[in-house]
Every structure is written in structure tokens, then in C-alpha cells.
Amino acid sequence: xxxxxxxxxxxxxxxxxxxxxxxxxxxxxxxxxxxxxxxxxxxxxxxxxxxxxxxxxxxxxxxxxxxxxxxxxxxxxxxxxxxxxxxxxxxxxxxxxxxxxxxxxxxxxxxxxxxxxxxxxxxx
Length: 124
Fold this sequence. Notes:
Layout: H1 7-12, H2 16-25, H3 28-39, E1 42-43, H4 44-50, H5 56-68, E2 72-77, E3 83-88, H6 90-93, H7 96-123
Antiparallel strand pairs: 1-3, 2-3
């Protein structure tokens, strides 16, 4: 860091592997899935109903990515027929406060964002 740099500046220069993780965890479907799973474990079709705009393929890809990153646990239930349930993992639970903070930030700043959009669109 230079003399004028702050510790915050170092955080803004995220290493490529961290950026990849952030991209995977903060994409639009991952946030929605994690938010739903923070409430309770859900089966695949329950998740599809909770996030109706996501396609089956996108949801499958999102769940696999979240499972691979340790955010979600895939649990095979011993029922007839066999079922699979997705649960927020211990690691995934640690991101809940951040997701909540993003939602609060968006609610708190939506009016300013709308005004900025209107100014931008008017200038176009």
C-alpha cells in the first residue's frame, strides 16, 4: 500500500479466486436460493416454486455451484420415493447477514437509484 492508501483500498483489489467466488455467490439466482434456504430446508420443486422465474436448468446449475462452494448441503432423504433436500450449510449461514444487508441497502437506496435512472434515461 502507498502512503495514501487505506486498508479499504486493499479490499477493493480482490484476488482473482476471491472475485470468482463472489461472482458465484452473489449472482442473481444464488442470492435468491441462499435467502430461501436460510429460512428452511427445501426440496428442488419447493425451491422452484419459491423462485418461480428461475429455469430448472439455472436452478440446478446454481445449486451445484453453491454445493461445490460449501454454501449448500444436498441431503438425500430415505423416503419412498427417494427425495433430495437442500439445506443452508454452516458456511452458507455465515453469509446470511451479508444478504440481509444487501436487501436493506437496496430498500434504503431505491429512491436514489430510481432518480439516477430517470436522469440517465432523460439524457439518452
